[in-house]
Amino acid sequence: MIIDNLKGLVIKNTGSWYTVLFDDGSTADCKIKGNFRLRGIRSTNPVAVGDRVEVKEGFIIEIEDRRNYIIRKSINLSKQSHILAANVDQALLIVTVSKPETSTTFIDRFLASAEAYRVPVILIFNKTDLLTADEQHYQQLLLNLYEQIGYECRAISATTGQGVEELRPLLEGKITLLSGNSGVGKSTLINRLVPHANQRTAEISDAHNTGMHTTTFSEMIPLTPHPLPLTSYLIDTPGIKGFGTFDMEREELTSYFKEIFEFSKQCRFSDCTHTHEPGCAVIKAVEDHYIAQSRYQSYLSMLDDKDENKYREAY
User: How far is residue 19's CA from residue 17's CA, in Å, rounded to a whole number?
Assistant: First the structure.
């Protein structure tokens, strides 16, 4: 089949092929030429799910300007990035207090990256049906923490359906990225929201209390099987163990932590790094418990990202 200068939306990325939904409703698997690279971005995947592209003779030849994207450091290639998705309206970060436990470092790194690329995030605390009394208490502390900072949080059980239907109004008319550690229940949640999706799920490894990868590529899933134009999509992404931040300047980092940024306005020095300086309002706010110690530690770990494996160990 010859595809000549058509425009469409990348809805699936298998690593070597990209499925494009064209504006006329047809789809085709396309490739990129070997020398195709985005200007200014060293990425392991120059084309991402959510990109608007132009296709000629089965090859993607142009990418339209992106509104935004979510990007993280490539695990094996520290000087390159991996784009999770482009042109998204929001992200749902699926986290679990147990089986497996999502670290606050992982949460904070994801939130900071989303702030940097102007992507709103809703935190979804899944597997509430499995929590002990102590774990329920800890989850409530986390809910309170992130809600006070200004993030919307929801507690659900994708397995039982508790709280899932209440998410639907948040997703309608939007392109939503789903992300989280392996095993937090993204596929189960998608199957609840989109029964026709038939996403594969897997059990948690008891030995390591970690998830098994069931999604091996990124894919846009329509929230409803209605004909074009489709306006509501979920973007399913492979589970990730760590979230390495990419291409962030040290002096910018403060602004990606909402509460730290607010207190930083009161610092004595305009170039305060909030690590040791006299008159630092951020350090005082941590000491006075206005800023959570876990958030401050996440800020410090990102500020001092010399150990490339540090963010992986946080998982």
Answer: 7
Indicate the DSSP class of residue 264: H
Integer Cα distance of 26 and 4 in angstroms: 13
The alpha carbon torsion through 287, 278, 276, 255 (nearest 10 deg) reads 80
pLDDT tens-digit series, residues 89-115? 999 999 999 999 999 999 999 999 999
Cβ contacts of 208 within 8 Å, gap of 6 or more: none
Place of tokens 């789903």: 178
Do you find a cis peptide bond into 229, omega within 30 degrees of 0?
A: yes
Task: Please count the other Cβ atoms lying within 10 Å of the Cβ belonging to residue 199.
Answer: 17
Q: In 3D, which of 52, 90, 55, 53 has the Cα closest to residue 70?
A: 90
Beta strands in 27-174 (DSSP E): 27-32, 52-56, 59-63, 69-73, 81-86, 90-95, 121-125, 152-155
Q: Are strands 175-179 and 233-236 parallel, antiparallel or unpaired?
A: parallel
The span from the CA of 109 to the CA of 6, in Å, is: 37
Q: Which two tokens stand for residue 67?
A: 């509104």
Which two tokens mark 283?
């350090």
Backbone φ and ψ for 154, nearest 5 degrees, come out as: -135, 140
Pairing of strands 6-13, 218-222: antiparallel
pTM for the predicted model, two decimal places: 0.85
